């Protein structure tokens, strides 16, 4: 029987993607950002290294625990129906593919079985990524690879139910530390996780032979007149290394409004003038970012838009693994007892990461960029120039299409080229007006005869009515 579990309020702002704190800017020789395009990665930028916490974090808020109310969760999530899981798994299941989940850790769960491996931990190194005090990472992993018993009547399953999960705990809202200062004053208390440790986690996962990496974590900042900071530069170097040197598909959530400086008023529709930058999605040359859709097929109102959005996937009314037990969860329970459905771009991204795992199983010859391109080309494109907009990117993913479509570029067929062809018009054909003239003359003559006839008839009748009466003589 599936059960909903209590998840602490720190995670509960509607189940949104984890937010990372800002970091100090680099020296002024680093180029300022301009518009939606990040500055080029400076030559010789080192690949970030590290496999443990940057500070001595300690548990401040108790880990999630089970909720006393048992909820029977047997229904199939709407996202599975929309993405046609029943047909999808005829083509691939993710068997033999490794998907790294860089998140709050992944708890052991019977629906993941022996396909869960701890790879690293940037919060408490000794846990190796297999403790999830926040619950977020376990739910993300479930959407990717959960596999309930075949003889159960549970409708939920992961999109790649035979994939292997590599867990890297990179952040936690429940663990804190005091950041030291240079002047000896009491430092700021911070939660675990920042862009530098995220960059290190990407490299660690890539070096652990991950085929796909899911990052349901974001940092949002104002876009205008901002110098790229150390954390952003480190992450830019890490994702470039993962894609180009280790051939890893990188998937990230697009971000959520109301989080870490991302405004509730959205990010604007002009692709050349976003008001806020969201990282990692900003590095769209190397990262595929995912927006959230609701069950009506509309963009979820909390999903941050931007020119870097790649595709979209289900992100509302989520069912996934109970991070504090052995069942399922479909609610977040706040400390005051309020219940919220699970939603966020955090939970849209793993659908796409799982799809990437299916593609890597079915088409093992494709490199990371070709996998991303296949996902984009087969998505349900919006009615926008180039089939792309700031809200949903190239549209809702189409997993069956992604596993069955023939992509010409993958077969070595060059793309069609436009040809400059001079437009020619046929010569003008003179109009022969003779039939029209004859018809008009005939019609005119008929009208004249008709009028003349009417005139004669009218005159005769008039003369008959005015002629003097002839009387007989006596």
Structural classification? alpha/beta
CATH second-level architecture: 3-Layer(aba) Sandwich
Strand segment tally = 17
Biggest sheet record: 7 strands, parallel
Radius of gyration: 35 Å
Large-scale geometry: elongated
Q: How many domains make up the coordinates?
A: 1
CATH homologous superfamily heading: Peptidase S8/S53 domain
Unreliable stretches, pLDDT < 50, 5 or more residues? Answer: 1-17, 24-29
Strand order of the largest sheet: 4-5-3-8-10-12-13
Strand coverage percent? 15-25%
- Average pLDDT value? 87
Q: What's the CATH first level? A: Alpha Beta
The CATH topology is given as: Rossmann fold
From the N-terminal CA to the C-terminal CA, the straight-line distance is 134 Å
Notable traits:
Rossmann fold, peptidase activity, 17 strands, single chain, 24% helix, 3-stranded mixed beta sheet, alpha/beta, 474 residues, 16% strand, 9 helices, elongated
Write a structural description.
It is a single chain. The protein is of the alpha/beta class and 474 residues long. It has one domain: Rossmann fold (3-Layer(aba) Sandwich), CATH 3.40.50.200. It is built from 9 helices and 17 strands. The strands form 5 sheets. A 7-stranded parallel beta sheet has the order 4-5-3-8-10-12-13, with helices on both faces. A 3-stranded mixed beta sheet has the order 1-9-11, with no helix packed on it. The protein has a 3-stranded antiparallel beta sheet with strand order 2-6-7, with no helix packed on it. β14 and β15 form a beta hairpin. α3 packs parallel to α6 and α4 packs parallel to α5. The longest helix is centred in the C-terminal third of the chain and has 33 residues. The protein is elongated. The N terminus is likely disordered.
